[in-house]
TrEMBL record:
<comment type="similarity">
    <text>Belongs to the 4-toluene sulfonate uptake permease (TSUP) (TC 2.A.102) family.</text>
</comment>
<dbReference type="Pfam" id="PF01925">
    <property type="entry name" value="TauE"/>
</dbReference>
<feature type="transmembrane region" description="Helical">
    <location>
        <begin position="221"/>
        <end position="244"/>
    </location>
</feature>
<protein>
    <recommendedName>
        <fullName>Probable membrane transporter protein</fullName>
    </recommendedName>
</protein>
<dbReference type="InterPro" id="IPR002781">
    <property type="entry name" value="TM_pro_TauE-like"/>
</dbReference>
<keyword id="KW-1003">Cell membrane</keyword>
<dbReference type="InterPro" id="IPR052017">
    <property type="entry name" value="TSUP"/>
</dbReference>
<feature type="transmembrane region" description="Helical">
    <location>
        <begin position="29"/>
        <end position="51"/>
    </location>
</feature>
<keyword id="KW-1133">Transmembrane helix</keyword>
<dbReference type="GO" id="GO:0005886">
    <property type="term" value="C:plasma membrane"/>
</dbReference>
<keyword id="KW-0472">Membrane</keyword>
<feature type="transmembrane region" description="Helical">
    <location>
        <begin position="180"/>
        <end position="200"/>
    </location>
</feature>
<feature type="transmembrane region" description="Helical">
    <location>
        <begin position="136"/>
        <end position="160"/>
    </location>
</feature>
<keyword id="KW-0812">Transmembrane</keyword>
<feature type="transmembrane region" description="Helical">
    <location>
        <begin position="98"/>
        <end position="116"/>
    </location>
</feature>
<keyword id="KW-0813">Transport</keyword>
<feature type="transmembrane region" description="Helical">
    <location>
        <begin position="72"/>
        <end position="92"/>
    </location>
</feature>
Length: 248
C-alpha cells in the first residue's frame, strides 16, 4: 500500500510538473527506485509511466500549437522519433554501474541548463545564430531523452529558449508533444527489450495523465518565475539525493 501511494502521488505530480515546465521524471524515477526496481528498469518504466501525461498536457496548449508552422513541427517530430530510438538502444547496452554513476550528473546538467536558459538565449541572440543547426540540437536532445527521460522537459525548454522562442505556453505545448513522441519511441524499444515493470507503469500512467491535464490548466494561471523556480528546486533536490545514493 505504501508503494502504491508513493507511485500514484509521484506520477500525478510528475504529470502536472511536465505539463507546466518539465522535470516530472525527477519524481517518478526516484519513486520507482524507492520501491525496489533496478535503476535502468526504473528509468524505462518511468518513461512508460509519464508519456501519456505528455499527450494530455499538449491538449491544454492546442491554441498555441495550431499557430506553429506545421512543416517545422513535422521535422521536430521526425527528429524526436529517431533520437528516442537511438537513446533507448544506448541505454540497453549501458552497464548498470555506469548508469548509476551518470544519473546524478545528468540530473545536474538538466537543472543547470534550464536555470541558465535565459542567459544562453541572450548569448545566442548576440551572435545571431538562433536558427542554425536547430535540427542537430534537436536530435541530440532527443537522444538524451531516449537515454534518460529525467529532465527531458527542462532540456527541451532550454533548447526552445536558445532558439529564440518567447511564448512559454507555446514552448510548453511543443515540449509536451515532442516528449510524447520521443517517449513513445522509447517505450516501444523498452517493451521489446522486456525491461518495463508493467504493473507499476500502469498505475503511474493513469495518475500522470490526470496530473498532466490539470497541470496544463494551471500553467496558464501561474507566474513564469514561479514555474521556473519549482523546476529548479525539484531538480536540485533530486540531484543531491542521487549523488548521496551513488556515494553510499
Amino acid at each position: 500500500m505504501i508503494d502504491f501511494v508513493v507511485l500514484c502521488t509521484a506520477a500525478f505530480l510528475a504529470g502536472g510538473l511536465n505539463a507546466i515546465a518539465g522535470g516530472g521524471s525527477f519524481l517518478t524515477f526516484p519513486a520507482l527506485v524507492f520501491t525496489g526496481i533496478p535503476p535502468i528498469a526504473a528509468n524505462a518504466t518511468s518513461a512508460v509511466a509519464v508519456f501519456p501525461g505528455y499527450a494530455s498536457g499538449a491538449l491544454g496548449f492546442l491554441r498555441e500549437l495550431r499557430s506553429f508552422d506545421r512543416r517545422a513541427l513535422l521535422q521536430l517530430v521526425g527528429l524526436s522519433i529517431v533520437g528516442g530510438v537511438a537513446g533507448s538502444l544506448l541505454l540497453l547496452v549501458t552497464p548498470a554501474s555506469v548508469f548509476n554513476w551518470v544519473v546524478p550528473w545528468l540530473l545536474l546538467f538538466a537543472t543547470i541548463l534550464f536555470l541558465l536558459g535565459g542567459r544562453i538565449n541572450s548569448w545566442i541572440e548576440s551572435r545571431g545564430r538562433q536558427d542554425k543547426n536547430t535540427w542537430f540540437a534537436t536530435l541530440v536532445v532527443s537522444i538524451y531523452g531516449g537515454y534518460f527521460n529525467g529532465g527531458l522537459g527542462i532540456v527541451l525548454l532550454a533548447l526552445f529558449s536558445a532558439q529564440g522562442m518567447r511564448d512559454l505556453n507555446l514552448m510548453n505545448g511543443l515540449k509536451n508533444i515532442l516528449s510524447f513522441v520521443l517517449s513513445a519511441a522509447s517505450v516501444v524499444t523498452f517493451t521489446l527489450a522486456g525491461i518495463v515493470y508493467w504493473y507499476e507503469a500502469a498505475i503511474m500512467m493513469v495518475a500522470a495523465t490526470i496530473g498532466g491535464y490539470i497541470g496544463a490548466r494551471l500553467a496558464r494561471l501561474m507566474p513564469v518565475a514561479m514555474v521556473k523556480s519549482i523546476v529548479v528546486v525539484v531538480g536540485l533536490v533530486m540531484t543531491a539525493v542521487f549523488f548521496a545514493r551513488s556515494l553510499a
